[in-house]
Specification:
Rossmann fold, Arc Repressor Mutant, subunit A, 2 domains, 5-stranded parallel beta sheet
């Protein structure tokens, strides 16, 4: 099944470059482009892409606000944020806004395509190296309102263990290997975690784990 992608960036060279790279993949099709956040919101509503590649810094409406509007209109929307810096000050906010992960603009063609596939599949959304940087950033920023401990208490010991591994950027297959269980069992645990915590996807689960203190810079 072909993954339909919308590319959002105010730079023509970036849009054209990503479009060429992705259209060269047999399982990916670029169905549209947008030059700013407002146009992105309109294009998503019209085209219903599987994945939105979203730049952060754009005129009219920035990528952060656009992501917020897109996810508010469709909780199933998958937004992959594009950034020049791996510690972009807006990355944390974008994940809180509902983005499904982020990718550096200097990513190789293979990393770009794999990132699109990962987000489209709802699988491992944050690479472990990126997750480590995010944890450090969470630690630096601090959390003004940590999640309620009652919500964490609703999880079983195994579910908490799975949540921590998800927050560390582990895929279902990696978690299954680590816990010596079937991959289908991991998927069941993840689904139950999302339902119990009232979260929409794995990225929100990772954010929850950081804010709850389940994952630390040293862990």
């Amino acid at each position: 099944m072909t993954i339909r992608v919308l590319i959002v960036d105010d730079q023509m060279m970036v849009r054209e470059g990503f479009s060429v790279l992705l259209n060269a993949m047999p399982d990916i099709e670029v169905v549209g482009e947008a030059v700013d956040g407002r146009q992105a919101v309109e294009q998503v509503a019209a085209l219903r892409p599987d994945v939105v590649l979203m730049d952060i810094r754009m005129p009219v409406l920035n990528g952060l606000e656009a992501t917020r509007e897109i996810v508010a209109a469709d909780e199933g929307a998958k937004v992959l944020v594009l950034t020049t810096f791996d510690l972009d000050e807006y990355v944390y906010q974008a994940l809180r806004a509902g983005a499904s992960g982020f990718l550096l603009k200097d990513a190789s063609a293979r990393q770009l395509a794999d990132g699109v596939r990962v987000v489209a599949d709802g699988e491992a959304l944050l690479a472990p190296t990126v997750t480590k940087r995010l944890i450090q950033e969470f630690s630096r920023l601090g959390t003004p309102k940590p999640p309620s401990q009652e919500r964490i208490a609703d999880l079983t010991e195994r579910e908490t263990e799975v949540l921590v591994l998800v927050a560390q950027g582990r895929s279902n297959s990696e978690i299954a290997t680590r816990l010596v269980v079937a991959e289908s069992t991991v998927k069941t645990h993840v689904s139950r975690i999302l339902v119990k915590l009232g979260l929409r996807d794995r990225t929100q689960a990772a954010v929850f784990a950081y804010e709850a203190g389940l994952v630390t810079p040293g862990g």
